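Weekly modeling sync, notes
Attendees: S.R. (lead), two postdocs, one rotation student

Agenda item 3: backlog of single-chain predictions. S.R. asked that every request posted to the team notebook include the full sequence so nobody has to chase files. The rotation student volunteered to paste the first one in as an example of the format we agreed on. Action items at the bottom.

Example entry:
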Amino acid sequence: MSEYTNFVRDFPARCREVLKMAEGPARLRGREVTLLLMAAASAFIVPFERLKPDEEPHASPHPSGDRERFPEMAEAVSNLLNKPFLASELWQNQNAESWRVGELASIAGTPDDWPALKNAKPVSSQKKVRSLLKIIRNALAHGNLFTKGGSPVSEVIFVSTQRDKDGNILGYSFLQVSPSDFQQLLIRWIDFLENTGVPQAVAAELIDR
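Predicted structure, as returned to the notebook:
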């Protein structure tokens, strides 16, 4: 079979392998955060878009049909999104103080010009996975990525635009986190996908990809 068939389980696992292989050389050149965001843009965005529930107004199913091809994985992702972040499979051995969220009226200038960053709040025990992953998804998809700290980078800031029904910008939501804690999240996301059951018939099909 010449067609690559599994972008929701095997592909992110391969991204994890590449991240591990390239991590040493990237660190030597001070490019570990660049590598991390490159990996996240693929290993997070691709399976997330193909498996996420179609809940937004006028949303349509992903053209890959992966929610139908991998129903167990789609259901697992739906369940994960509805869990409190701090009680989910994505959370383990991380620094809770590293994860902070807030709202911005403007993203003009640089993060040093955003007073709201100083008033960011730790992620609460009620905050759902859905809320945080949506910010990460939107930031990666639209290039709304920022950092603080020079070398090394101390924080990665993900920004999501809030709009009204007519598309007018109301403001911005942000998530800031240390690179090491975000990498733990990414790895646990990939592990979650890899450990989610795949129907036997589909698994047999994937052996010969």
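Discussion: group reviewed the output briefly. The two ends are 5 Å apart (CA to CA).
Action items: rotation student to repeat for the remaining queue; S.R. to check formatting next week.
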